[in-house]
Amino acid sequence: MKKLALLFILALLVFTLPVKAERSNGIGTNEQFKGPVGMCMYSLRDIAKAKGLDAAMQFAEDQGFTIVEASDFFGHTAQEYKNLLDKHHLYASSLPTGYDQLKTKESLDKVISDAKTLGAKYVRIAWIPHDRQVGFTMENAWEAVKVFNEAGKYLAENGLSYCYHNHGFEFVPYDGCPEGETLFDVLVKETNPEWVNFEMDVVWVANPGYDPVTYMKRYPTRWRLMHVKDFSGKDAMVFGESGRIDFPALLKTAQEVGFKYYFIEHDDPRKLDEVTPKNVQFLENIKF
Questions:
Q1: For residues 214 and 249, is the Cβ–Cβ distance under 8 A?
Q2: 165 lies in some domain
């Protein structure tokens, strides 16, 4: 009788314990959302500054990540950075650079060399210089189009893919623009898709008042990378039910249009508890 009661209790526990979502393609994924999901190393910059880059990569490894998005080298060479990646069983799919580094062959050759040392496929930038008091202008957009096309072509000839990461300031309507369009649309429409593609930071589409899903569908072949995060309406990065973004619709559409990598990012490196593991668990439970 006691054995039967014990078996009943054990069975009850098995059926009532929370079931973890089945990962289909590594951390942060499930049978519907395939990912792959990586860690944006920019989120770990405080660890790297205080304890070193080795400690930051150890944090990413300890959380279960195998893919990262490279950020600052923190004084290391590309080879030293690659050695640390290998030590922690990490792969860096993309390399950051700056706007000015896109303008000359000499600086691009260094970017290409570093990317190939890391084994990265993508080169990205995250800012177009402009007067913040004036705001982003059509003149800024046209200059960026020229720079992006020329640099993107050279990178493509060397086996790399260029991506621009939006930051919200580009979403400015201009005189005579079609309804619902902005200077960001100029950056997409006037750049060559063979040489220039984009990394969508979903908060910095939604925060200016635009819909990330709309932009995915408007330009379905131009997206390669995503920064996965949300906001509460007070510029505070959050994740989950308190956020504003419809993540099931977002990730379903992202998979349909062919994003290649999804990176968890938090703009405030002091809030790593909001980066992982909570965000990973949130993504693993996403259902379309």
A1: no
A2: yes
